Amino acid sequence: MSDHKTPRRDFIKLATMTLGGVGAASLAIPFITSMNPGKDTLALASTEIDLSPLKEGQSLTVIWRGKPVFIKHRTPQEITEAKNTDLNDLIDIEDDADRVQNDKWLVVLGVCTHLGCVPLGQKTSDVKGEYGGWFCPCHGSHYDTSGRIRKGPAPKNLPVPPYVFLNESRIKIG
Amino acid sequence: MSSNDPQGYKKTLNSPYTGFKGWIDSRLPLVRMMEAEYLKFPVPKSLNYFWSFGGIAMFCLIGLILTGIFLGFHYKPSADEAFDSVERIMRDVNFGWLIRYLHANLVSFFFIATFIHIFRALYFGSYKAPRELVFLFGLTMFVLMMGTAFLGYTLPWGQMSYWGATVITNLFSAIPFVGDAILKLLLGDFNVGDSTINRFYVLHWLLAFAIVGLVVFHVITLHMTGSNNPTGSEPQSWDETVSFHPYVTIKDLNATIFFFIILAFVLFYYPNILGHSDNYIRANPMVTPAHIVPEWYFLPFYAILRAIPDKLGGVLAMFGSIAALGLLPWLDTSKVRSCLFRPVWRICVLLFAINFLVLMYMGGKPAEGIYVLISRIGTAYWFLFIFVLAPLVGFLETPRQPLSITNYLQSKKA
Questions:
Q1: For tag attachment on chain A, is the N or C end more exposed, with fewer CB atoms within 10 Å?
Q2: Which of A32, A138, A149, A156 is the mutation pick for testing B, counting most B CBs within 10 A?
Q3: Residue A37: which of B171, B190, B286 has the nearest Cβ?
Q4: DSSP-derived secondary structure letter, B174
Q5: E strand residue ranges, chain A
Q6: Domain that holds residue A31
Q7: ipTM associated with this complex
Q8: Which residues of A touch B203 (CB under 8 A)?
Q9: Domains of chain B, start order
Q10: Tell me: the pLDDT tens digits for A122-168?
Q11: Chain-chain contact of A117 with B366 (C-beta, under 8 angstroms)
Q12: Do the Cβ atoms of A36 and B185 come within 8 Å?
């Protein structure tokens, strides 16, 4: 084989393999995307809740996207505790004011940020952990009255889902 | 090789058989392969019963696939129907209880056989050159086995199924930046749900057959090097070997029957002893059971996961613990294979086995106080064993001169 032909053949080989690779990758996209939540699953993505039956100190668990959402009507004491926490004591630093729209109502996703268990603390008889909020029984994470992680393996605060107050006593999550 | 067949291809056509067998064999050389690999195959004559656990594991795999097929005829992989269809199998399907209990308990016994099989490889140095690939295919199968068992445990859709699946899939959310997107992609939903159980069912089947495929590679690589044996010395002559059939076939069959008698005892008298009663409660996405425990065979790895106080770190340590074992053939610097002739390494390996059982116990306990401390020590020893002791002991220890197979057998008689 003469010298000048070899690089040309190499180039053709490389170009063919590259095109084949790009083709295979493009073909993979619809298949991989098909594994993501479908349109029907996404359509169930908002829930409306009436807050009026909830008295001070009571909590409500509602389902949003198949996951529990904790709604807590906080007592003045719980509000003060959440407000007066020294931010330097927090693992995932976030001010209580950034986590609520109305001080009385705390709305957080009831899914532990460690490995996805549902923390205890919604019922009055539940263990609430060392910070008076929630306690995850799976691996021992403690959350405070603002749903912030204070102790245990969870890395983040309980996330606040997107929600709006439709009026004084009605919210829409999602 | 004849002159008109310069590359020797056509010699494969010269079957030693005649008639129908010969006709098949000269076109599909399966008959001659089976004879060479499973009848006449030479095996060191010093093998002990530890060498039967590979065969036992294979029989467990066959049993799982057979029972799995029959369960699949009745099972419905959907969030609404799964739990009820399993109850129907248990109550209404003819012998459904037997088939399901067999499937559930065979998994446990498959893991028992595999743990002993892996211990055998560590103790007698079967992972060392030239059997590195045998070992790596084995470890890969072990990982797939754990994947398959996890997927299968999700299918009955009880509380432990659901929350086990939630906790384990959430491990992927520890991956920085893309974790949550990957989790959503795996589940096909925002939480473990209908899409999840459907795909888990398909993957449970797929991985089971992937394991079968890997068994073939495991055996091919093993048959290239031949079996290791308690001395770690290679056979020096035909006198030091026996043929696979009838010597190994009968011995393995004997061991398998004994092993399956124990399985039968558990199956018929304590069918739920290795399971968790919470899994007879239908999955409830709103309530997490007070104490989530994985199946017993995952406990050592679960203990490692929980020993690390950081989420990503825990996940890396858990997967890393098995991956690190794959480096052992290269990290172990000793020229001697078998622990029979390695006084220091022998203690390290036995401690590793005891540590494995301790971690198993810790994984079943709540993650608090002394349990966490012991889990951390156990995790530290796991990695110390692989990354420090294996290279260092091989370097510092003075092993005894390994006996030949013949001398070993004579010394055992004496």
A1: N
A2: A138
A3: B190
A4: G
A5: 47-50, 59-64, 67-73, 105-109, 132-136, 141-144, 149-151, 163-167, 170-173
A6: 1-36
A7: 0.73
A8: none
A9: 52-287 (1.20.810.10), 293-335+350-397 (no CATH)
A10: 888 888 888 889 998 888 889 999 999 998 888 889 999 989 998 88
A11: no
A12: yes
